[in-house]
């Protein structure tokens, strides 16, 4: 029997969460090693497994994969989650990249900022989500009409979109932002109902959204 895929990362969602969701869609069991100190980070770097000395790391099929975009695409190819036609594959790639950009712009990264900068950062993140990204995904979901972004089943683009939308739904800081985007709100429920995803979300392997304690641990471990 082949070894289970192994994820090495901090104790949180972060850049590993989209890959975790891809594994969940496929109901693939994984193992995880959590880096909690800088000493542990230096030790994993010394193994030579981290091409650019960064995490997350996914060990699968004899490969040491880094870079979250590359990880998503490798897993998408492995599990046939990139679309069924050239047209679908092109749309999946656009929406995958767009979802990751959405997360980088509108995700709750204010926890990593000085206290005096947080209010403005939070306001900017929410405003850009409302005006730049959520209307686009609302339109795509409406036009596709299946509950997913492309085709009739989950792709890597759906995993990336769920990553940010589920966070928005869980965190009070977003002030029920999804109420104004019913297709996006329904998408969270549709994706959550996928059997493997449902099992993952209900398990202790699903980390909570980021907070001050998480940001402190990440800084101590990686910087």
Automatic annotation (TrEMBL):
One of its GO terms (biological process) is glutathione metabolic process. Transmembrane segments: none annotated. The keyword Transcription regulation does not apply. Keywords: Transferase. It comes from the Eukaryota. Residues 3-83 form the GST N-terminal domain. PANTHER family: GLUTATHIONE S-TRANSFERASE, GLUTATHIONE TRANSFERASE. This is Uncharacterized protein. The lineage of its organism: Eukaryota, Metazoa, Echinodermata, Eleutherozoa, Echinozoa.
């Amino acid at each position: 029997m082949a070894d289970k895929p192994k994820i090495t990362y901090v104790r949180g969602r972060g850049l590993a969460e989209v890959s975790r969701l891809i594994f969940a869609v496929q109901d693939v069991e994984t193992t995880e090693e959590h880096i909690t100190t800088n000493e542990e980070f230096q030790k994993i770097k010394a193994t030579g497994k981290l091409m650019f000395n960064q995490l997350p790391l996914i060990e699968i099929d004899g490969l040491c994969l880094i870079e979250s975009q590359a990880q998503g695409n490798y897993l998408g190819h492995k599990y046939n989650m990139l679309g069924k036609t050239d047209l679908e594959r092109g749309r999946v790639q656009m929406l995958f990249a767009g979802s990751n950009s959405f997360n980088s712009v509108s995700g709750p990264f204010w926890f990593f900022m000085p206290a005096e900068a947080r209010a403005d950062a939070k306001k900017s993140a929410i405003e850009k989500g409302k005006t730049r990204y959520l209307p686009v995904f609302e339109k795509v979901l409406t036009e596709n009409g299946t509950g997913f972004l492309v085709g009739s089943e989950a792709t890597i683009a759906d995993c990336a979109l769920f990553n940010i939308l589920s966070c928005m739904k869980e965190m009070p800081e977003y002030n029920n932002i999804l109420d104004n985007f019913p297709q996006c709100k329904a998408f969270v429920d549709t994706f959550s109902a996928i059997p493997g995803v449902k099992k993952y979300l209900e398990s202790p392997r699903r980390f909570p959204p980021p907070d001050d304690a998480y940001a402190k641990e990440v800084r101590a471990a990686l910087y």
